[in-house]
Amino acid sequence: MKKISLYIHIPFCKKKCFYCDFVSYEGVEEMVIEKYFQALYEEIRAYRTLLNGNYSIETIFIGGGTPNYVDVEYIEKLMQVINDSFDVQADAEITMEANPNGHATEEDMSRYKRAGINRISLGLQSADDKLLAEIGRSHCFEDFRHAFAAARSAGFDNINIDLIFGFFEQDQQAFYDAVGYVIETGCEHVSAYSLKLGEETPLYEVYMERGFDLDDEDWADRQMHQYVCDALQKNGYMQYELSNFAKEGYACKHNLNYWNIQEYIGFGVAAHSYKDHARFFNTSSIEQYLEDIKINASAIEEIEQLDVQKQKEEFIIMGLRKIKGIEIDEYNRRFGSDFLADYSKEIAYLTEAKLLENDKKNVWLSEEGRDFANIVMMEFIAEINY
Ligand code: SF4
Question: Strand 326-327 relative to strand 88-98: parallel, antiparallel, unpaired?
């Protein structure tokens, strides 16, 4: 039986953060939430025939948005619908993202756990209340401490904490203190993202009005990145992807499936899927999503069939995100060609420039190369497109 992952998008938040460009809605009426979940259940059930008997579910990721913003019942029912519809492996990794001030009491966390969720990803982002307010987060540090303690008391033994850095004029010491706090919690996994500010976000407008040149902050961003990498590694967290760190045995299987270009099905508004070398994109309009599901139980707006060239590009880009890099044997097996021969020129000059390293089994970004990851990745794509 083949393995596959599921992603479920819950597009509701208490309040829209100023830097957010995910598909999520604030202040939505209960009636819309109710309709959305009914549609989601229908969309999931419609996949029963396609997946059953052929696939077992290896990982599930309930993301958003803020999945713990909606009443816990919706998530319990969602898990029930998934379990009734598919063959979910007994040891499947099942993650739910949660915000500290959503439904996050010990009782709520126990209910998520009983529903089958076994990994919680908590958004701390910063331990500095001043910065949290400036970037429009609706929680404070104290909320996080309660939510983390509640998740532990409910028995979650696999918790990720999200951090973001790279805000303009960010207090670096406060960030370093936050890293220290995260280590103290003893959480199993940390995602530390460098801010990528979309032009459509309110914070981008604020920065522009204040005349900030975002490139000026690059060095501070790199300093914070280096700090978080060093501090986490010294404390038993292995960096296994550009922004992700885990204690041994706790790397996120779901995200590894993305980086290893494995198949997954996405449900909900704006969700993507990857199956049989094609990417499927659901509509990003919630009204359209509800309408489409009502008519034919599917909200796919676009399908992109990837040719071999594009498959190679994705394999290389995603592979280079992993610290261990691209697995050469896997490339050769998938594409029936020789990676080291296909890219001998690029490998030679990127190695000469000390941006890439290889041991004939894997090819990975050097420490310096990680700071120029996008540039290195583009080198491989440029060749493919010629
Ligand atoms: S909680 Fe997450 S998804 Fe919701 S607005 Fe903030 S950043 Fe966006």
Answer: unpaired
CA distance 42 to 292: 11
Q: What top-level class would CATH report for the domain 2-258?
A: alpha beta
What is the atom index within ligand 1 of the atom nearest the CA of 65?
A: 3
**Do you find a cis peptide bond into 65, omega within 30 degrees of 0?**
yes
Residue of 9, 10, 12, 13 best suited for mutating to test ligand 1, as the one with most atoms within 8 Å of CB: 13
Lookup: tokens for 267:
């449900």
pLDDT one-digit tens code per residue, 6-54: 999 999 999 999 999 999 999 888 999 999 999 999 999 999 988 888 9
H helix or E strand, kind and range, residue 230: helix 218-234
Which two three-digit tokens encode residue 290? 């509800």
Distance 14 CA to ligand 1 centre (A): 9
pLDDT of residue 217: 62
The structure tokens listed for 151 are 């998740």
Integer CA distances (angstroms), 61 to 6, 75, 155, 190, 320, in order: 6, 12, 19, 16, 23
Sequence spans of domains, the chain: 2-258, 308-385
Measured in Å, residue 257 CA sits from the centre of ligand 1 at: 23
Q: Is 138 in the pocket of ligand 1 (CB under 6 A)?
A: no
> H or E element: which one contains 152?
helix 141-153
User: Residue 19 CA: which ligand 1 atom is closest?
Assistant: 7
Write out the two tokens for 165.
């850095």
Question: Whole-prediction pTM value?
Answer: 0.95
CATH code 1.10.10.920 for 308-385: yes
11 three-state secondary structure: coil
The 10s digit of each residue's pLDDT in 54-110 is: 999 999 999 999 999 999 999 999 999 999 999 999 999 999 999 999 999 999 999
Is there an atom of ligand 1 within 6 Å of 272 CB? no
Q: Which residue in 91, 73, 90, 88 sits closest to 30, CA to CA?
A: 73
Q: Which residues of the chain carry a pLDDT beneath 50?
A: 383-386
